[in-house]
Amino acid sequence: MAPEYALWGYLTDKADVYSFGVVTLEIVSGKNNSNYRPDDTCTCLLDWAFVLQQKGSLMELVDPNLGTEFNEKEAERMIKVALLCTNASSKLRPTMSAALRMLEGQDIIPEVISDPSIYGKDMRISPLRDHYQHMEMQSSIGSLAPNFSSDGAQVGSSSSSAQDLH
């Protein structure tokens, strides 16, 4: 689930791109994102992919059951596109059409921002926290920020009419 949706209930086309990236990693690795914990430092497959990217060992993600019966360049392309699609910042994720062009080899895959010092210890959440703090600041100067309950559902009044719902 995309961080911006999990934390604040923001659902956009970039949340779908994030999910596509997670599913792509699951296909390449043969592992379930939420059930895979290679060690105590990683909470999921996506965390492990980031660690391997830092080490320059992305091919360790490939499902070992494939043996040598796979195209390494295609597997690497899939992993790199998946990492782009799962960027913590939705603004840095490609569109689905751009991701498809990269997978097909029509577009060059840009390098993923991978320096953990950019965001601090919890790199994948910090950009979202920064965005939320920016929204709070705007709210304090007169803008109205959405309110969410503890379960992530938006609360407050709605301006939707019956016509909007049909």
UniProtKB/TrEMBL annotation:
Residues 1-101 form the Serine-threonine/tyrosine-protein kinase catalytic domain. SUPFAM superfamilies: Protein kinase-like (PK-like). One of its GO terms (cellular component) is membrane. It holds the Pfam family PK_Tyr_Ser-Thr. It is found in: Membrane. One of its GO terms (molecular function) is protein kinase activity. Residues 149-166 have a biased composition (Low complexity). It is a single-pass type I membrane protein. InterPro entries: Kinase-like_dom_sf (IPR011009), LRR_Rcpt-Like_S/T_Kinase (IPR051824), Ser-Thr/Tyr_kinase_cat_dom (IPR001245). Residues 146-166 are annotated as: Disordered. PANTHER family: LEUCINE-RICH REPEAT-CONTAINING PROTEIN DDB_G0281931-RELATED, PROTEIN KINASE DOMAIN-CONTAINING PROTEIN. This is Serine-threonine/tyrosine-protein kinase catalytic domain-containing protein.
